[in-house]
Specification:
Chain lengths: 237, 160
């Protein structure tokens, strides 16, 4: 029977899962598969699993419950093994690596920060600060432009947008880095220009949050920051 | 240096449960530990997250879109009063020069502190969220605590 695998923890983790349900329309019971000093949390895999909101949240809920009682390595959503033996084999094979990662994330949580900037705001900023851009823009609006001017303006502005947002993103990351153990950046999506995760130790949390708030306040208008956490350390396993 | 809060609406409020899920979806679906010998169930819809990746592509189409956005932009709309405008332009020119000799964030922050923003544009999350299939018990639980730190308050920093 295929099993859905949620997380890997140390064998001595209490794994209290009462009241938490697994994935699937009629969730199968959550249980432990132990191998040596490691333990995997699994349930029988439902047929035809898809990324439904309910299932994604169930996966997440298991991590959060485990995280409350000790270090946990969350698996990516949707991984299944053929049976319990296959899970045990995997634990044994990766034993050294998993044990090392469990120690690395012990006492820590992930904080994910995403940020977007209002497009009109950044374009305004560029037009105000770049004389060349402003002149090109004015000439196009007055109908005095040569045919290549819109492309010229766009190229200039696109370059500025990218440079400014990259500088800003790295500035935000560097401001927060000292209060984290590890940093993991990812490709921003949608209108975001920043998508970064920090592994934050418990005793650094307060300082990290205060710094984040201060960065947000300093940047002020035109920006939207979305901080999620404390989360299971998805980006640090 | 003094910070002068300028008022304005401070927050648009936190998102609901689904907004919270949206912001951690990429972590749950795209990160986390992968064990090679395990099979990942075919999950239709996951790729959608990646298509959406924001890249400022160097193409004529992108350039024209930016140019049009600039042409359309009403440079006056963010200006509330002429006196304020003069202030801001002065600050911007100053901070533009200072920005070069400062760290990236410092320079960007000063420039941004003076940006003339009109109304905010709502994030596309509401639409994008639809990519996640609705489950029956969708809104019951929140997976994480989110601290939504939106600041719409207008602040201006000045060096004296």
């Amino acid at each position: 029977m295929a099993v859905y695998v949620y997380s890997i923890t140390a064998e001595d983790h209490p794994v209290r899962l009462d009241g938490v349900e697994g994935v699937g329309e009629e969730p199968a019971e959550l249980r432990k598969v132990v191998a040596g000093s490691l333990c995997a949390v699994v349930s029988d895999a439902p047929d035809g699993l898809r990324p439904k909101r309910r299932d994604v949240m169930a996966h997440q809920a298991v991590q959060e419950r485990l995280m409350a009682d000790g270090a946990v390595l969350p698996l990516r959503f949707g991984l299944t093994a053929p049976d319990d033996d296959a899970v045990r084999d995997a634990l044994e094979q990766g034993s050294a690596q998993y044990t090392q990662r469990i120690e690395a994330v012990r006492g820590c949580a992930e904080y994910n920060l995403k940020a977007s900037q209002d497009e009109d705001a950044i374009l305004r900023e560029i037009l105000l600060e770049s004389e060349t851009a402003r002149e090109l823009n004015d000439r196009i609006r007055r109908g005095e432009a040569t045919p290549d001017m819109p492309v010229q303006l766009g190229e200039l502005v696109a370059g500025e947008v990218q440079a400014r947002q990259e500088a800003l993103a790295s500035g935000v990351i560097e401001a927060l880095r000292p209060h984290s153990r590890e940093v993991s950046t990812a490709q921003p999506t949608g209108e975001d220009f920043l998508n970064v995760s920090f592994l934050v130790a418990e005793d650094q949390e307060e300082l990290f949050l205060a710094t984040q708030l201060s960065v947000t306040n300093q940047l002020g208008e035109g920006y939207t920051f979305r901080l999620s956490g404390p989360l299971p350390p998805y980006s640090f396993v | 240096m003094t910070v002068v809060p300028q008022g304005g609406d401070v927050s648009r409020g936190g998102g609901g449960g689904s907004g919270t899920l949206y912001d951690v979806l990429d972590l749950i679906l795209d990160r986390g530990l992968v064990i090679d010998v395990f099979v990942r169930v075919s999950l239709v819809g996951i790729e959608i997250l990646k298509i959406d990746a924001r890249v400022v592509v160097a193409s004529v189409d992108t350039y024209l879109r930016f140019a049009e956005a600039c042409n359309r932009l009403d440079l006056e709309s963010g200006r509330k009063a002429p006196a304020q405008l003069t202030d801001v332009v002065g600050d911007t020119l100053e901070s533009g020069a200072k920005g070069k000799s400062k760290g990236a964030l410092g320079g960007a922050m000063e420039a941004v502190a003076d940006s003339l923003t009109g109304g905010g544009k709502k994030r596309q999350a509401d639409d994008d969220r639809a990519e996640l299939e609705e489950g029956t018990d969708a809104e019951e639980r929140e997976p994480v605590e989110e601290r939504r730190s939106t600041r719409r308050a207008s602040r201006r920093e000045r060096e004296r």
